[in-house]
Amino acid sequence: MVFRLGEKYQNYVCSNGCVCGNPQEWASALSRRNFLLSGGAAVAAAPVILAAGSSPAAAQASEASAPAGKVSSKLVAKVNETIDADKDRLVAIFKDIHQNPELGFMEVRTSGIVAEQLSDLGFEVVTGIGKTGVVAVMRNGKGPVVMFRADMDANAVQEETGVDYASKVRVKRDDGLEVPVAHMCGHDAHVTWMLGMARVMTNMRDQWSGTLVLVGQPAEEPIAGAKAMVDDGLYKVAPKPDYFLALHTAPVPTGMVGMRGGMMQAGTDQIDVTFRGVGGHGSTPQLTRDPVVMGAYAITEYQALVSRAIPPLETAVVTVGSFQAGTDNNVIPDTSLLKVNLRFFSEETRQKLIKGIRAINEGIARTYGMPEDQLPTMVMKGNSPPLANDEALIERMVTPLRTLIGEDKLLLGIPPVTGSEDAHVLVAPHPDTKIAYLYVGVADERAMAAATKKGEMLAFAAHGPHYRVDPASIPAGAKVATVCVLELLAK
Predict the structure, then answer these.
(1) Is 370 left (phi over 0), alpha (psi -120 to 50) or beta?
(2) Whole-angstrom Cα distance, residue 353 to residue 318?
(3) Checking CA distances to 343, which of 325, 417, 425, 491 falls within 20 to 30 Å?
(4) Dist. CA 17–CA 314, nearest whole Å
(5) Whole-prediction pTM
(6) How does pLDDT run across 193-220, given as a tens digit for each residue?
(7) Domain presence at residue 228
(8) Where on the tree of life does the source sit, at the highest rank (predicted)?
């Protein structure tokens, strides 16, 4: 059975993957259909959501023509049995990592756990790739090379979940700020899913053939870790992958899997903008050139780029996540710092945003009398292009996942999102590698019921203080990871 968005909602995703039209109305339509939940329970009916522009007939044809799959129901049953027997250990690992989170490029303890676990299983393990990255290789005869990535870093967020294993960690960053640290995006689950899958693959070597490459990646949050691993010689220790897989937690019911072929996530840039000024006493602003005022104007003017410089049917997001300036009430500082984040689905849109931000910065600085050699600087930090899944590979995953989780927990053709990743940067040197990036639900029934009561579709927000991974999703995600890998390597 196929959920049909209907003609009214058919054109809300452009050919470049952007969500346009009226997203709120589209979300409302999906909510009325209860495609995610019904009173906090699992999906009540058909899970297949058409990507806009698709026809119901095409979706039905896609369902009917899904490849038969190499993972039999018998093999799925063995995966379930093996991981269920291992679930207590896996949940303990998850809780331990959750209580001991580490920021990007600081994942010394986490990478140590990954390296030790995989080494004990017989993988060839190399550490320190991209500072704290881990690469583990298991060769098991002839066959394709499959790379699976789990990101390891946490967020600078104060956890407020109330769980007894909540993080209390605080660290001092390189910029001198002391910040709370917590896994508010689920990377602790990603690591544990990979470790659970690795044990199953080791125990079932007679069932598959080929090479499995596991990557513990640092610094996904600053969009820097994948490039760091590639630049630091990832492919001196790992073979070129034929297939690349990654999973990410999603604030939807535990065990659900969401995926789509084609455009999946937006590209992103992290930019530090520094305004220079002339500091002085707060009582005599006329004697200064105030970088706080310059920064404040820039923040508001950036938004006009989206509303007035980018075509309405394109998707663009400009966010200023931090505005840092001065220390005292009565002192005008001589610099201010804006931490800017961009989201886009095309390189053309990206360039318009970057050029526009530079023009706004320089125009404001000149207006306030700054000389040409003191104009604002822009430091380009982490960058990742949009992430697109291989259409055929996603179709190939449908049958084994259907066997694993059932029809009612499989969400196909989900819309692209403006969230971003750098996972696919790991395979940027090999553009013919086929990519499959999937979401796995991690919200328990209580969280979903609370969201439903408030009229919300999602249980909590990523990077928010209440992001809580249901421990029951740990074995569930490990099973999804294992079945996806086996689909590509099973004999």
Answers:
(1) beta
(2) 8
(3) 325
(4) 9
(5) 0.87
(6) 999 999 999 999 999 999 999 999 999 9
(7) yes
(8) Bacteria
